[in-house]
Amino acid sequence: MMNSTGLSGLLLLLLLLLFNNGESQAIIKTLPGYSGTLPFKLETGYIGVGENEEVQLFYYFFESEGNPEMDPLLLWMSCGPGCSGLFSIAYDIGPFTFDVENFDGSLPSIILNPHSWTKVANIIFIDEPVGTGFSYANTLQGYNSSDIKSAKDIFTFLRKWLLNHPMFIKHRLYIAGESYGGKLVPMVAMEIVRGNEAGLQPQMFLQGYIIGNGLTDPNIDFNARIPYAHRMALISDEYFEFAKISCAGKYHNHDPNNQQCTYALQRIKKCLSRINEVQILDPSCANMAPKPNDFGWDQTFLKDNSVDHLVLPSAKQECQIQDLVVSDEWANDQTVQEALYIRKGTISRWTTCNKGISYEYNVESTLEYHKILIKKGYRALIFNGDHDMAAPYMGPLEWIPTLNLTIDDDWRPWLVNGQVAGYTEKYMKNDFDLTFATIKGAGHTASSYKPKECLAMLDRWLSRRPL
Predict the structure, then answer these.
(1) Which of 64, 166, 353, 467 could tie 71 with a disulfide, CB 3.0–4.6 Å?
(2) Which residues of the chain register pLDDT less than 70?
(3) What DSSP designation does 89 have?
(4) How many domains does the chain have?
(5) Could you give the C-alpha distances from 298 to 9, 146, 268, 301, in angstroms and in order?
(6) What is the span of the domain harbouring residue 260?
(7) Would you please indicate which residues are annotated as catalytic (active-site) residues?
């Protein structure tokens, strides 16, 4: 008689045979722009989701450069919606980036990131939703997506990916993302919880989730922009107090018939019109970059305002727009697409962030997801660059207390190499713990500004050590 272990293995094999149609994966040992063999293990591939697998989601998988057999598995979702996983790889937490400084219009050179999160974790970067990066659909209808559909598609993707990579099924699993991707993080985590409770195979070893400068509830996160601007001395006490009284503290989606509130916000808007929202210390990049319309900067003021609400980080060069030009040149190069095993004819032109995706924003707040995950005992790391005005750190500091947690470690500085890297506070409830951290001096996508500090933060948190 076959034991339970044997039955489980047979079931996984049958599921693998059932679900691997239309999927592909390849080990990438060299990349155009890098001389020699890559010093990390990279795999790319497609996994089909949706009815008849009409949606083909593209991914990049990097094995940990530390101990891949023991290190956890992270599924990472980029900003957007519509920003490629390559964006997070090259400009944020991945093992390589591009030599922007010496870019001359030819094929960009690749340089290594010594502070990649792949130093301590296996990471899957996914091009989602469909229409992002190299992901595509076989039908026009397949290109329609939404918050709810994205979460379900990503869950299906991960389930199939694990079936194709059974050696990672028992790894500690964390769902992670930043900016708008942070909104999907608890939604995908909930899909995993429901799947595990329903007995779906494989059972995923979910441990918790990670959100960086993420969106949770626009009525909280976006509303925090005006108080943040005041706290950072970008607007005067007089302007702030007038707006606070006139708008009754409600700046996001304010009543357009409230003339006093409108006037107060117009004065504030003028003060902030030359500020780079994603890193207030960086130069203003007005009218120079893509402007994804999901991050609601216009709703903080008026519908016709022209203030950038850029979701992308600004770059190490002035305005960092050059960075995005470099990734566009690299990813659209025919030799690069051949090296990544991109299916020919599936996309017309690759873009860092696709503003033209068909996407429905049908989940406004994810607070209820957080509350359910708390009750079930999953861990959480919430971090924010403290110079980001697009998704300011004051947002989480407002919504975290609504979770009815107990402070376990009071607000204090956390250090890297003896220097203050930011401030942190830890909360507890039964088996659940939530760590909140600021990254001092960082903007949106904090690792692009403070890579060493962010890697130290991740390593400590994954190892269950205090920041």
Answers:
(1) 64
(2) 1-22, 285-322
(3) I
(4) 2
(5) 53, 21, 13, 5
(6) 219-300
(7) 179, 388, 444
